[in-house]
């Protein structure tokens, strides 16, 4: 066998070895850092190893800042559990509620919204929602002892609402003759009601219940408004891989009991 033929044989063997290595490399197995075993990203985040979360952090018990300046709440614990499943460190960033969607769409500040946000068709045109993670309704809060008979009683009244929320949408539709007074947060709306600057507040029921739990401040929930809302986390339409990863992690924490534990911690009951 001459040198030329030996060289050709060696090249052929080398090519076969490379081919086998490439085929083996096509078998991908995802791990928890957003990459597969080939080092290719299965989802992307703004900062490697981190999940940046935009939130209106004045919405207890879903998110709030405690006396030590630490963001806590139901959404916070759920997102931390999801982050653990994905191998990501979760950081909450405070944002005014009605700027959350445009800021997420603009990109570069946070990866996901976790802010007690109701899944609505018009919002879903701009962002992508995960599977629902909480069922909610609205509430009407007024001064203690107020005899409330129905929305018609609100005509000519000042109704405090959090700007950009489903509570504001309900008030516009059901109390068209009332004057709506928008606020940046639910806590600001409640403070205005307590001060007598508005006559009522329309707000998410679990948040109203939380705000009045320790100190009713002379206020009470005079009506529970069934709206059948569901909250979802939201991700940019440009990042479907991250949405899929969060959805999978959310399903996992529901299956392994973590979700139930967090729900009971914050609401004192198990989800229905």
What can you tell me about this protein's structure?
It is a single chain. This protein has helices at residues 3-25, 74-86, 100-106, 121-124, 166-174, 186-195, 205-211, 240-255, 258-267, and strands at 50-55, 58-59, 63-65, 71-72, 89-94, 112-113, 128-129, 134-143, 158-162, 179-183, 200-204, 219-231, 234-235. Residues 1-32 have low confidence and may be disordered. 36% of the residues lie in helices and 23% in strands. The strands form 3 sheets. Strands 5-1-6-13-7 form a 5-stranded mixed beta sheet, sandwiched between helices. Strands 10-9-11-8-12 form a 5-stranded mixed beta sheet, with helices on both faces. It has a 3-stranded antiparallel beta sheet with strand order 2-3-4, covered by helices on one side. It is globular, with a radius of gyration of 25 Å. By secondary structure, the protein is α/β, with parallel strands linked by helices. The protein contains 9 helices and 13 strands.
Summarize this entry quickly:
36% of the residues lie in helices and 23% in strands.
Provide the descriptors you would attach to this structure in a database record.
272 residues; D-Maltodextrin-Binding Protein, domain 2; 2 domains; five-stranded mixed sheet; 9 helices
Strands, helices and their partners?
Layout: H1 3-25, E1 50-55, E2 58-59, E3 63-65, E4 71-72, H2 74-86, E5 89-94, H3 100-106, E6 112-113, H4 121-124, E7 128-129, E8 134-143, E9 158-162, H5 166-174, E10 179-183, H6 186-195, E11 200-204, H7 205-211, E12 219-231, E13 234-235, H8 240-255, H9 258-267
Parallel strand pairs: 1-5, 1-6, 9-10, 9-11
Antiparallel strand pairs: 2-3, 3-4, 6-13, 7-13, 8-11, 8-12
Helix pairs in contact: 2-8, 2-9
